[in-house]
Write a structure and sequence with these properties.
Number of domains: 1
Helix content: 25-40%
Shape: globular
Distance between the termini: 85 Å
Number of helices: 6
Order of helices and strands: HHHEEEEEHEEEEEHHE
Structural class: alpha+beta
Bound molecules: heme C
Number of strands: 11
Largest sheet: 9 strands, mixed
Strand content: 15-25%
């Protein structure tokens, strides 16, 4: 039998340690490539606008962002161009021009500075973006667009879309309406109506719902919930 000399024993020991370290590292994932998104829900197929356009705080800046994006443009792709984590207040309220379809398809307010965008994943208002620019603690200027958008829009379009008689169709609920200057169209300010805390739906629950959404049977609703709660990483916040 070959005599195991001291240097050979040392080399053997050294190699064993190396092998052990390698095993440990591989199994701890130290050398693993960074984990890419765990599910398809994390991946966006939307085009991103130049970064300086992606944080609109006025109605007219939303129009600039919209016009920088390819058409047709869906509401989820517009949402994905907003700064994350999104700040949201989701509410199961059905008394508005954009009613929730229930606790699992709530009306979702997305807040960016003084701008509040409202969307719903299902129901009669699902193709509408309703929004308001807060000008003080009691009044906001109102706007609305119907999606998907097929072409560029005029600065005046979000204001024109809600025109009714000498004001807007919103005034039946948002009272004390008055005409106001300094906006990209014929604009009206009216009373702010705030969502109720009692009807609030948490982002944590809606994120789980989005992750388990049945895409085959409910594609639009799933897409909307995913853009807000998964890709948008929404967190609960309050209106300004
Ligand atoms: C039937 C009543 C009703 C009508 C009509 C209505 N809203 Fe509202 N709106 C509400 C209620 C109620 C809230 C508070 C949130 C909730 O419970 O849905 C609200 C809140 C809002 C908000 C967030 C806070 C604020 O006041 O700025 C915006 C933006 C908004 N509505 C836009 C509109 C626009 C745009 C129109 C017109 C196209 C409109 N709403 C018409 C009932 C209405």
């Amino acid at each position: 039998m070959m005599k195991v000399t001291k240097p050979i024993r040392r080399t053997f020991l050294f190699l064993s340690i190396l092998a052990l370290m390698n095993f440990a590292f591989v199994n701890c994932g130290v050398f693993d490539p960074p984990k890419s998104s765990s599910s398809k829900d994390d991946e966006s197929s939307c085009t991103m606008a130049p970064v300086h356009l992606r944080s609109p705080t006025t109605i007219d800046q939303v129009t600039e962002l919209i016009n920088a994006l390819p058409k047709p443009l869906s509401i989820p792709c517009l949402i994905e161009n907003l700064p994350t984590p999104l700040k949201v207040f989701a509410v199961n309220s059905n008394f508005s021009a954009q009613p929730a379809e229930g606790a699992d398809s709530p009306r979702i307010f997305i807040i960016n500075g003084k701008l509040v965008l409202s969307v719903v994943p299902a129901g009669i208002g699902k193709d509408l973006l309703e929004y308001g620019q807060f000008i003080n603690s009691t009044e906001s200027v109102k706007a609305e667009l119907k999606f998907p958008l097929e072409e560029q829009i005029a600065l005046s379009q979000p204001y024109d879309h809600i025109k009714s008689g000498s004001g807007t169709s919103c005034r039946f609920c948002h009272t004390s309406e008055r005409s106001i200057n300094g906006f990209g169209g014929e604009a009206f300010a009216s009373s702010i109506m705030r969502p109720s805390f009692f009807q609030r739906q948490t982002s944590a629950r809606l994120r789980t719902l989005a992750q388990n959404c049945d895409k085959a049977n409910d594609p639009y609703r799933c897409e909307m919930l995913n853009s807000v709660f998964v890709r948008g990483r929404a967190q609960d916040a309050d209106l300004p």
